[in-house]
Amino acid sequence: MDATIKLIEAEIPRLRRYARFLVGDADRADDLVQECLTRAIAKIDSWQPGTNMRAWLFVIMRNSYFNELRRKSRSPIIADSEATPAVSPGNQEAHIALQEVRRAFLQLSEEHREVLLLVAIEGLAYEEAAAIIGVPIGTVRSRASRARSALRQAVDGDPEEGRTQADGTHG
Amino acid sequence: MVDTDILKEHRIQDYIDDRQNERDRASVAAYLLANPDVGAAVERLRRQNEALKAMGQEILDEPVPERLRSVIGDAKVGTSPASVPAAEMPPAPRLQRRPFLEAAAAILLFIVGGAVGWFLHDKINPLPSDDDLLTSQIVYAYEFYDRERDYPIDFAADRVQDFDGWISRSFTRSLPPPDLARYHFTYAGGRLVPSARIPVAQFQFENDHQQRLGLFFWQGSAQAIRLPQLADDKRTMVKIWIEGDLSLALISDRDNPDFDAIANDVSTFYRRALSAQ
């Protein structure tokens, strides 16, 4: 069990980043991570050794987040993050390209933000992202492709093009 | 994203994400070199991807707050997670608590593999690399099946319309749960079972005696996953049939006297629903 706890511990920074994208505010994000850790430890027997710990924790945290939204009857969204940057201001000049991407990222649909978060930012395998989101792998691939195109268009300064709609197809 | 076919697009995505081995990477690089317009577009996407990866990097570099470390510390010394509400605590071992679900998982494995392989055996385009994935995802999805547990896509009974939205996207049609009130079963919720290649949806019903009834449906192809020992379970009943391009499996505890009648009603319900679309 200690080995599994260590695996969980190693994922805390990733959980904090994912939570920051989900809820925006840093304190609320850590609240969510804390709940996730508590639930994960309580359910530690549910984790299958050999499977991806990060993906398992992301499922728990994502569901905790959406369950909380349901309880509060708020609309389920991935980010609230438009007002709460996931990146601290820092050196504006040094981060200008990053800020452009972040600005464009926030214009994307929730589905596109989520798939890019899991696949491009967190680097999860497509099958892992599919398991977390609950869609087939083909959907993740096509959604990621569309999200990248939409992001590129948004970075290029075409916000209407970049403001993507949730795709309702798969494959 | 770029003007190319799906396969190339997938390979280019893998190239952008740096998910390829050296040989595949060299192959894509050669293609991009020979197609400079595509190469320029891909290079922009690659740079964009690098910027994406950098988003939130400083969060990864932050020290972990004490309150989060204390959760881990408590776990290491064996302190119970006191803040977890009783309702959210993990269930007892599955075999003791939900034999029906264990059997249902076994049957689902069998039917997704065996039944689909049975009626689509000559339509399957084998993709061996997905076999283990399909199996593991179904097992994984099932093992998490419990109303008190977490899994990616689940909808309580009061969100049946939302679930139908998911179904409509995955199955390209609306497929609401049947009304089984005449058998005293009420709809308890539904979920979309993650799978490697085919969406599998589940409707769950319960009656006042805590008896359960599961309805799974899917379309398309899947590899034959033969686990014959799973069909030996004596505690459940299952019926598998096809309506149009939809495959359905109804699973119930063995002591359900209305099982055949329910299956007939479910079949009629979906036959009419599909013919009306």
Topology (SSEs and partners):
The complex is a heterodimer of chains A (171) and B (277).
Chain A: H1 2-10, H2 12-23, H3 26-42, H4 53-71, H5 96-107, H6 110-121, H7 126-133, H8 137-155, H9 159-162
Helix pairs in contact in A: 2-3, 2-4, 3-4, 4-7, 5-8, 6-8, 7-8
Chain B: H1 6-16, H2 22-34, H3 36-54, H4 57-61, H5 66-76, H6 94-97, H7 99-120, H8 131-143, E1 154-156, H9 160-171, E2 186-193, E3 200-206, E4 212-219, E5 236-243, E6 246-253, H10 259-275
Antiparallel strand pairs in B: 1-2, 2-3, 3-4, 4-6, 5-6
Helix pairs in contact in B: 1-2, 2-3, 7-8
Q: How does this model look, in words?
A:
The complex is a heterodimer of chains A (171) and B (277). Chain A is mostly helical. Helices cover 65% and strands 0% of the residues of chain A. Chain A has helices at residues 2-10, 12-23, 26-42, 53-71, 96-107, 110-121, 126-133, 137-155, 159-162. Chain A is globular. Chain B has a six-stranded antiparallel sheet with strand order 1-2-3-4-6-5, sandwiched between helices. Chain B has 277 residues and is α+β, with helices and mostly antiparallel strands. The chains are: A mainly alpha (171), B alpha+beta (277). At the A-B interface, helix 1, helix 2, helix 3, helix 4 and helix 5 of A face helix 1, helix 3, helix 4, helix 5 and helix 8 of B.
